[in-house]
Amino acid sequence: GESVGLHLPTLSVQEGDNSIINCAYSNSASDYFIWYKQESGKGPQFIIDIRSNMDKRQGQRVTVLLNKTVKHLSLQIAATQPGDSAVYFCAETRSRQKLQFGAGTQVVVTP
Amino acid sequence: DGGITQSPKYLFRKEGQNVTLSCEQNLNHDAMYWYRQDPGQGLRLIYYSQIVNDFQKGDIAEGYSVSREKKESFPLTVTSAQKNPTAFYLCASSIQDGYTFGSGTRLTVV
Predict the structure, then answer these.
(1) Cβ contacts (< 8 Å) between B55 and chain A: which residues?
(2) Of the four, A33, B29, B69, B73, which is 20 to 30 A from A13 by CA?
(3) Interface contact A104-B39, CB threshold 8 A
(4) Do B104 and A102 touch (CB under 8 A)?
(5) What phi and psi, each to the nearest 5 degrees, are found at residue A92?
(6) pLDDT tens-digit profile of B51-109?
(7) Which of B38, B42, B99 sits opposite A34 (nearest CB)?
(8) CA–CA separation, A2 and B84 (whole Å)
(9) Which of B18, B21, B20, B19 is nearest to B103 (CA)?
(10) pLDDT in tens, B41-51
C-alpha cells in the first residue's frame, strides 16, 4: 500500500554557509544523474547533471559528486542563500530511459 | 516559447468518477512521462511513452490509464479504480538527456 504522511529529511543551513545534500541511488547500471530543485506547488527545476563516466561536475555555486562504488551522489551548494530553500531531488536514468527519483531533502536556510 | 502545459492547475473529483489530466508539449520531444507526488514524498513514475502509439507502465500504474495518439499529447486518466487519487501530478518530456517538467495538476477527491 502507499505510505502517507512521511516527512522528508531536513537540512537546516545558515545563510552564507555551504550545503551538502546526499542521495543514495538504486541502480548500478544508471549512467546519467540529475539534481532538481522543487519549490512548493511547482514542477522540478534542473540544477545540474553528471554522467557516469565523471566523478565531479561544477556549475554556478553548485557541485555534484558521484561515487559509483557506493552508489552515492551529492550536491554541494556554496554560500547558501534564502532562495535556495526548497526540496532537492536526485534522479537517475539508464540509457536515456525512464527517470527515477530519490526521496528528496528539504533544505531550510536560516538567517 | 516551447514548453509543457498541464491543465487544469487544480482539479476536484467526486469519488467514483474518472478524470483526465491534460499534458501538451511543443518541444518536439519523443518521450513523455507522468509522475505522482504525495505530500513530503518524492516523484513516483506512473506511465511513460518513448514514442507515439506506445507506452509502458511505471512503478504505480494501477488505477491509471494513458494514451499517446499524438507526439505532443500524453493525457492521463485517473480511474475510479485508483483508491487514493488525491495527489500532485507532474508531466515531463525528454529528448536525449534533456528533461522538461510541467507545472503540475493538483487533484483532490471530495
Answers:
(1) none
(2) A33
(3) no
(4) no
(5) -130, 155
(6) 999 999 999 999 999 999 999 999 999 999 898 999 999 999 998 778 899 999 999 99
(7) B99
(8) 9
(9) B21
(10) 889 999 999 99
